[in-house]
Amino acid sequence: MKKLVSILFLSIVLFAADFDWVESLDKAKEMAKKTGKPIMLMIDQKGCEACEYMDEVVFETDNVAEFVENFFIPVKMEMKKAKAAGFKVFGTPTFYFFNSKGEKIGRQLVGAAPAKAFIHKLQVYKKLNEKYK
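Above: the chain's sequence. Below: its structure in token form.
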């Protein structure tokens, strides 16, 4: 029975398509400098169906979760807090990307996208980070 529980626990841990959001942009910038990874900032708000789609469908897709986990530092910020911090938000979710130095790269993305399209966009920002390291 213990072996069965252990195997079940390991399979959940190893195959869960989830990653941990960093609690603040400042913390993410510190991590980016140490790791060389770019930052993906997602601005969301309660009741946002597109935000829920990203959280519950796209970020739960194995290849997207793995790509974010391996190549980005993910941060989530509530819209009111983001606006107070000076970010322009035209809709939610809005994504900003920063290179490993903490500098904004590329244009912000607004709205949800299916997993395949979103991972393609992430690949573009990964390349931008490499260019502006």
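The chain has six helices and four strands.
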